[in-house]
Amino acid sequence: MIETRGLVHRYGESRAVDDVSLTLDDGAFVVVAGPNGSGKTTLVRHFNGLLTPDEGAVLVDGDDVTDHPVTARSSVAMVFQDPRECFVAATVGADVTFGPANLGLSHETIAERRQTALRAVRMDGREDERIDELSGGEQARVAIAGALAMEPTHLVLDEPFAGLDWPAREAVLDHLRRLEEGGTGVVVVTHDLRDVATAADRVVVLSEGRVALDGPPDAVADRLAEFGVRPPER
Ligand SMILES: Nc1ncnc2c1ncn2[C@@H]1O[C@H](COP(=O)(O)OP(=O)(O)OP(=O)(O)O)[C@@H](O)[C@H]1O
Q1: ipTM summary value
Q2: Cα–Cα distance measured from residue 15 to residue 197, given in angstroms and rounded to the nearest whole number
Q3: What class has domain 2-227?
Q4: Which of 77, 93, 109, 168 has a CB 3.0–4.6 Å from the CB of 150, allowing a cystine?
Q5: Whole-angstrom Cα distance, residue 31 to residue 215?
Q6: pTM of the model
Q7: What are the residue boundaries of the structural domains of the chain, listed by start?
Q8: What are phi and psi of 91, to 5 degrees?
Q9: How far is ligand 1, taken at its centre, from the CA of residue 37, in Å?
Q10: What is the CA radius of gyration of the chain?
């Protein structure tokens, strides 16, 4: 479970996240939406301790992430908006293997995880390719595979569909749905609900750093446009 309590994040005088209290259950598919600059990225970067609260706290499974950053990072995997921020190795296979190898798993388990993760994003068979020679969409898929291979209790993806074509979106979304059914919490940042409406259990809409709407997609759908969020198609 990820919990924020009265979370405030400031950049200078301005409050990018302003008193946000949320509880995100394991096994839920939560969309964080809102207009540009509403604080989505800043909020989710607190979920695994990448940022430090100016006020309030963030807890992962009851532990304050500021005091337990290592636990937070192994429980909550993050895929950044710019996939190049995620990479730690030169080739596809080495990158996806890095996280599980650090967990001290057996070679067999690591290979299985790499295979499953790459298949989920339709990048299997491309282990030896250099990441810097891939297209933006392919890089995004490798970044997602790297997070999937960690088999975290929560997976947080910031605008994961931006560079992907439809087949890749569908493949990733299918895999996210399966993860959620298996008990993994999934958090997706987006400003277009059409990508995720069929999978989402809950939509949290931020406006100027505050929670403006919070509920199941159907319950919030009519008010999304007010906050610059593209509603799901019906
Ligand atoms: N490193 C930073 N330094 C100063 N201000 C920042 C920084 N990062 C973000 N901001 C500001 O904080 C506010 C929230 O930004 P944030 O990126 O969290 O919003 P967002 O909803 O994710 O936006 P987008 O949809 O454009 O990615 C914005 O006004 C932004 O300009």
Answers
A1: 0.97
A2: 29
A3: alpha beta
A4: 77
A5: 10
A6: 0.91
A7: 2-227
A8: -110, 160
A9: 5
A10: 17
